[in-house]
């Protein structure tokens, strides 16, 4: 039995991960769960999976849970709590599925504790990819198994290959809800932006998919996970979401991973790697799909994509600014406080005023993150 900690267990990835655990009951023992504010669902999960350790967003919720669980569960809260759960001695695998920059705290802690990390949270790699790469050099027993579907696909395509034989990575993306639509970005509502054509996900990543910021993040994520320079990572729009990404090798051969779009596949592989087990997920029938299409991304229509690649090129603390402002802007768009078209404008404005620190330490990244959030709040309010 693998002892498992799931951080962000009440989210889309977390709930799907618990579905995987239910399906492979005899393989996993859930010893830790975390949620930010959805205490109601967390209580249900505690009753079913009986973890010994639990973390919530703040002290008040921790007290509420303490009254509910009594002494049999150890309750933590906040970022310190996430770090404590990520470094639990008995844990074999830590799934990091919290959303946003908060994922960086448990990621650092899990690496320093030499854990196997199933990583769904991409923002941590966007904001601190170089710091994370350096940490891995120091803590060689730690490892990341990617859970993001594109990166899981690439990971599976290259696992028996030599790194020097990789020539290019092709990251595929559906194009989001507005790929083929002629719609003024001023008029896009949260309901329209949340209607993703192929994936059912948390709200923040669904908006990032609509702006295509998500694909920009995924290029940065791939660069840090696989050590491939940015100019050899290509984005390809693939509306059917069947080919989850591809790798081209020096001889011109291309390997790709195909499946129905269902995150439980990538999550299960991230938790069971290197083993595979049957799932109840619908099988792929290519004859019913008929065609697989591939297009160039439209950088003009999706300025967030351009901004993400620009931040990646500049490096240092710029991707942290990109992410922080994006988080604030998306949050405000979802609350109907700003228009969809304002998201890239706020990001661009604050990126322009930022003085980049070239090789930041984690403390500097968190400081810049706070600075960029404050600036963004000032601009959108
Ligand atoms: P979600 O919003 O559905 O869930 C987020 C989880 O994180 C919840 O459990 C929430 O309680 C917790 N959380 C939120 N803010 C927190 C904070 N400040 N501190 C601690 N916990 C906090 O998000 P999701 O769609 O499950 O995505 C989770 C992560 O996985 C994101 O980084 C996303 O980019 C990545 N990802 C998601 C998918 C997907 O299919 N949903 C696919 C690929 C990658
Ligand atoms: Mg993805």
Walk me through the topology.
Blueprint: E1 2-7, H1 12-23, E2 28-34, H2 39-49, E3 53-56, H3 59-69, E4 74-77, H4 78-86, E5 93-96, H5 104-112, E6 116-119, H6 123-138, E7 143-146, H7 149-158, E8 166-173, H8 190-193, H9 203-211, H10 213-226, E9 233-237, E10 243-249, E11 254-258, H11 263-272, H12 286-289, H13 303-314, H14 318-334, H15 342-353, H16 362-380
Bound molecules: nicotinamide-adenine-dinucleotide and magnesium ion (MG).
Magnesium ion (MG) binds next to helix 7.
Could you describe the 3D structure shown?
With 381 residues, the protein is α/β, with parallel strands linked by helices. The chain folds into two domains: 145 residues, Rossmann fold (3-Layer(aba) Sandwich); 204 residues, Orthogonal Bundle (Rna Polymerase Sigma Factor, Chain: A). The chain contains 16 helices and eleven strands. The strands form two sheets. Strands 4-3-2-1-5-6-7 form a seven-stranded parallel β-sheet, with helices on both faces. Helix 6 links the parallel strand 6 and strand 7. The longest helix has 19 residues. It is globular. The model has no long low-confidence stretch (mean pLDDT 96). It binds nicotinamide-adenine-dinucleotide and magnesium ion (MG). Nicotinamide-adenine-dinucleotide binds next to helix 1 and helix 9.
Provide a short characterization of the protein structure.
47% of the residues lie in helices and 15% in strands. The chain is an alpha/beta fold. Helix 6 packs parallel to helix 10 (213-226) and helix 10 (213-226) runs parallel beside helix 13 (303-314).
């Amino acid at each position: 039995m693998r002892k498992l900690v799931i951080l962000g267990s009440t989210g889309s990835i977390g709930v799907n991960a618990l579905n995987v655990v239910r399906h492979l009951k005899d393989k996993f023992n859930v010893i830790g769960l975390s949620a930010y504010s959805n205490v109601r669902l967390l209580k249900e999960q505690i009753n079913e999976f009986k973890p010994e350790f639990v973390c919530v967003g703040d002290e008040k919720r921790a007290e509420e849970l303490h009254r509910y669980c009594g002494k049999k569960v150890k309750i933590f809260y906040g970022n310190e709590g996430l770090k404590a759960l990520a470094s639990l001695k008995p844990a074999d695998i830590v799934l990091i599925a919290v959303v946003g920059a908060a994922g960086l705290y448990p990621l650092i802690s899990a690496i320093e504790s030499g854990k196997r990390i199933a990583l769904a949270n991409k923002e941590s790699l966007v904001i601190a990819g170089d710091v994370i790469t350096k940490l891995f050099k120091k803590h060689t027993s730690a490892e990341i198994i990617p859970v993001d579907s594109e990166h899981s696909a690439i990971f599976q395509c290259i696992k028996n290959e030599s790194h020097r034989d990789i020539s290019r990575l092709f990251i595929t993306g559906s194009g989001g809800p507005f790929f083929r639509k002629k719609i003024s970005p001023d008029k896009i509502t949260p309901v329209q932006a949340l209607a993703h054509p192929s994936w059912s996900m948390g709200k923040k990543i669904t908006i990032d998919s609509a702006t295509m910021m998500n694909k920009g993040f995924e290029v940065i994520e791939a660069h840090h996970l696989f050590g491939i320079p940015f100019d050899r990572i290509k984005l390809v729009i693939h509306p059917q979401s069947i080919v989850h990404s591809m790798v081209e090798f020096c001889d011109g051969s291309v390997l790709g991973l195909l499946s129905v779009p269902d995150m439980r596949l990538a999550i299960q592989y991230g938790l069971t790697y290197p083993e595979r087990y049957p799932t109840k997920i619908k099988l792929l029938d290519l004859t019913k799909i008929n065609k697989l299409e591939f297009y160039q991304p439209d950088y003009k229509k999706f300025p967030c994509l351009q901004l993400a690649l620009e931040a990646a090129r500049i490096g240092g603390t710029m991707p942290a600014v990109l992410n922080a402002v994006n988080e604030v802007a998306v949050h405000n768009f979802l609350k109907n406080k700003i228009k969809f078209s304002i998201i890239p404008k706020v990001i661009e404005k604050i990126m322009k005023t930022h003085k980049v620190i070239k090789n930041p330490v984690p403390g500097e990244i968190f400081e810049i993150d706070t600075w960029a959030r404050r600036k963004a709040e000032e601009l959108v309010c």
